[in-house]
Design brief:
This protein is mainly β. The protein has one domain: Exo-inulinase, domain 1 (Jelly Rolls, Sandwich). The longest helix is centred in the N-terminal third of the chain and has 7 residues.
Length: 196
């Protein structure tokens, strides 16, 4: 007769929880954040020209942005380490219509933003920091989904399916960006699909 532990080993192995599979972009989408470092992102000057690239770096030069596993994290301002307001942009620009999806988690009263070619969509702890204090599906201090659909120079933006902006006007081309303003903001599953 087999020892007790050997008899039940197949049963124990089959009921063990499976490890979470690594995240992959939705079909047709490309990830803008690799989960390792800030490759593909950098700072731009006031004219919008590339200023500093963070390829193969886990942190921006002033520490405002860092790669922390699945999340690209916006860190609080540290006195004397560059400007308080800081924008991180993709190296690439996006002249075609596109769909952008990303998830964000805001600390209490955190203030950030998502730049779409240039205009900013406010991304914050909405119920505290506004401007969208009436959202019903926003989950404070949890992951929320922003989806942006750009067609013919206008962006339709939603948070968990609720409208943030119906027709935000955009220029013909430009990068995607994130803003560091107040407190900690995490972004993950940042993905884009360029439309024909």
């Amino acid at each position: 007769m087999k020892p007790f532990s050997l008899l039940f080993l197949p049963l124990l192995l089959s009921s063990a929880p499976a490890a979470d599979a690594p995240w992959t972009p939705d079909p047709g989408f490309t990830s803008l954040y690799n989960g390792i470092d800030l490759t593909g992102w950098g700072y731009r000057d006031k004219a919008g020209q590339p200023l500093e690239s963070f390829n193969a770096k886990a942190q921006a030069s002033d520490g405002r942005y860092s790669a922390q596993g699945e999340s690209l994290t916006v860190n609080p301002y540290a006195e004397g380490k560059g400007p308080r307001l800081r924008q991180l942009y993709t190296i690439r620009e996006f002249p075609k219509d596109f769909i952008l999806k990303l998830e964000f988690r805001a600390a209490v009263n955190a203030d950030s933003g998502i730049f779409l070619r240039k205009p900013q969509l406010q991304c914050r702890d909405y119920l505290v920091a506004g401007p969208y204090k009436e959202l019903k599906k926003y989950k404070p201090q949890d992951w929320n989904l922003i989806e942006v659909v750009v067609t013919n120079g206008k962006a339709r933006c939603t948070c968990n399916g609720e409208i943030l902006a119906e027709a935000l006007e955009l220029p013909a081309s430009g990068p995607i960006g994130l803003e560091a303003d107040r407190d900690t903001m995490e972004y993950r599953h940042i993905q884009i699909k360029e439309l024909p």
